[in-house]
Specification:
6 helices; mainly alpha; Arc Repressor Mutant, subunit A
């Protein structure tokens, strides 16, 4: 995409130009969107799942029954997005919702047998996409990427307040 103007700001404001090509939040957002779209091709059409629905199922499949708030914490999705995903998964009978016996104000989500079957089919498919995405990297680069991502995840986890702020 070619810009309309090579320098949209007046000369006195040039110091305020944001070099998006090198701005980490923008780059990570663009990369995350591309990766999500690539992975979503695997489950969207065949299993009629959106990305938030799959993320919810993936967390429940990996960690077992939990509250919607726990899904929010583990996925960093906002509460509204998780709520909508859960509603659609409940309607398709891929998850169940039951009252927490220890605290009747809370609901516990879990995969249904059909949800587990879908999860079991999708997992190898998304792992194959991950493998393809990482294929340009050597073993050392993969290890370094994992290390860098882990550090950034730990550093940003303290800032997470349950909302998804888009940049």
């Amino acid at each position: 995409m070619k810009p309309i103007s090579s320098n949209p700001l007046p000369p006195e404001d040039e110091a305020q130009i944001l070099d998006l090509e090198h701005f980490l939040p923008f780059r990570l957002s663009v990369l995350a969107n591309r990766v999500t779209r690539r992975v979503a091709r695997v489950y969207a059409r065949r299993f009629q799942l959106s990305a938030p629905e799959w993320r919810t199922m993936a967390v429940l499949g990996r960690y077992g029954a939990m509250t919607a708030n726990s899904v929010v914490e583990r996925t960093a999705m906002d509460k509204v997005r998780v709520s909508r995903a859960v509603a659609r998964l409940l309607a398709r009978e891929r998850v169940t919702r039951r009252t927490d016996p220890d605290d009747r104000r809370r609901a516990i989500l879990d995969l249904t047998p059909e949800g587990r079957a879908v999860y079991a089919k999708v997992v190898p498919m998304v792992l194959a996409v991950e493998s393809e995405l990482l294929s340009p990297l050597g073993a050392e680069e993969r290890a370094l990427l994992d290390q860098v991502l882990r550090k950034l995840e730990q550093h940003t986890a303290v800032d997470f307040a349950g909302s998804e702020d888009e940049i």
